[in-house]
Amino acid sequence: MDNLFTEIPRSPQFGEITHMTVDISWKDDFERILKTSGGKPMAELCMRGDGIEDWQNIYKGYDVHFTKKNLESESTYRFRLRFRSSKGTGDWSNELVAKTLSKVRFYKDKLLIESPLTGNDIHRTVRQGDAAKLREILTKNEANIEAPDNLGFTPLMFAAQRNMLDMVEILIEWNANPNTQNDTGKTALMFASFKGNLECMETLLESGSDVKMADQNGLTALHMAADGEQTRAIKLLVKAGADLEARDNSMGWTPLLRCAGLKNNGNVDVACELIRSGAQVDALDNDGKTPLHNCIINSHQQLCRLFLSYGASVELITKNGYNATQLAESIGNTKILQVFKECLPKERGDDQ
Fold first, then answer.
1. Could you tell me which residue ranges the Fibronectin type-III domain spans (predicted)?
2. Is 222 helix (H, G, I), strand (E, B) or coil?
């Protein structure tokens, strides 16, 4: 690695700090490296709130300053900087700490401190369903529209989950990000999909919600709609371009595999909608199980009948070496074996 990138950069410098913004500059470091190396270094800037363990990437590029917006007032934030080039990646600078201000105004030549509006004010107003008050708060452009509540919900997530269409529309109008993710990676669209809140879903999709975005477990909005047993939501998501074969991170389950794999699901209408939309009835998970295998394990008898009617294979073998009949026999699932007895001659012929 080049020597330029083994030296720890000086801490970035603060410019203007307000009750909701912090301006940060690294011009001196940038010019020093540019002069010495002859090439533009790329700056990476990270931030974390006081008491928060994880760093958040807030800027990556070739500029020499950045203004972080939509911060909470009277709150402490920590920043660090490093540079990257074709010659390598440098170390992080020492942390630089900034505290946002209270709102300052003058009245009759006296300096007054007025607590600015915060994300809590938005959350409170959304919960109350007060559209006029919400517009009033947002018009002042003081509060962070993306501020999470104590459960990690942004105002838009809360409104979408509760089917508060008017709140969703106002928040979107004021540029709430429909693709913001909470601590587990879930978006407003995912929450609305689980509940089957169709009008909220439509509004979110029209405003740019990424229908293929996944949470930290690999679950998409389509997985959530299947989990919530929301057939109309499934239809809407598929029309919007949802991936029917998207897989979660743990078992490699598609929405159809998940429908069959969850003990408390097994919803025939959900599975039927997924299959009619193009889901693979013989998709394999990480263990080599098909939706039919999952049906057997969870004793979803009616779902088993559905899969057989759509041509599900009883001969595919799991990584443990079981086809569908062998799996049912190994766990003593006589009810599923009876389903096979009733359905297979009709669907497969007597050679099974």
1. 8-103
2. helix
Q: What are phi and psi of 4, to 5 degrees?
A: -60, -30
Instruction: For the chain, state the CA radius of gyration.
Output: 27
pLDDT at site 103: 60
Q: Provide the token pair at 11.
A: 């801490």
What is the dihedral sign for C-alpha 204, 205, 210, 211? positive
Those residues whose C-beta lies under 8 Å from the C-beta of residue 332, and which sit 6 or more positions away, are: none
Q: What is the pLDDT of residue 352?
A: 42
Residues 6 or more apart from 140 whose CB is under 8 A from it? Answer: 117
Contact of 120 with 160, CB cutoff 8 Å:
no
Q: Give the number of other Cβ atoms within 10 Å of residue 71's Cβ.
A: 19
Q: Are 160 and 203 in contact (CB under 8 A)?
A: no
pLDDT the model gives residue 31: 83
For residues 96 and 48, the answer to whether their CB atoms sit within 8 Å is: no
CA–CA gap between residue 97 and residue 18 (Å, rounded): 14
Q: So what's the pLDDT on residue 1?
A: 40
Q: Which residue has the tokens 């109309």?
A: 232
In this predicted structure, what is the pLDDT of residue 323? 96
pTM comes to 0.68
Q: 234 Cβ partners below 8 Å, 6+ apart? A: 222, 225, 226, 255, 270, 273, 274, 277
Return the H-helix or E-strand segment holding 15. strand 13-17
Collect all residues with Cβ–Cβ distance below 8 Å to 89 and sequence separation of at least 6: 1, 5, 82, 83
Domains of the chain and any CATH numbers: 3-114 (2.60.40.10), 120-243 (1.25.40.20), 252-352 (1.25.40.20)
**Residue 252 identity:** G
Q: Do 79 and 45 meet the contact criterion of CB atoms below 8 Å apart? A: yes
Q: 305 — phi, psi (to 5°)? A: -60, -40
What is the rounded distance in angstroms from the CA atom of residue 235 to the CA atom of residue 242?
A: 9
Query: Nearest-CA neighbor of 81 among 32, 17, 25?
Result: 25
Residues 192-230: pLDDT tens digits?
Answer: 999 999 999 999 999 999 999 999 999 999 999 999 999
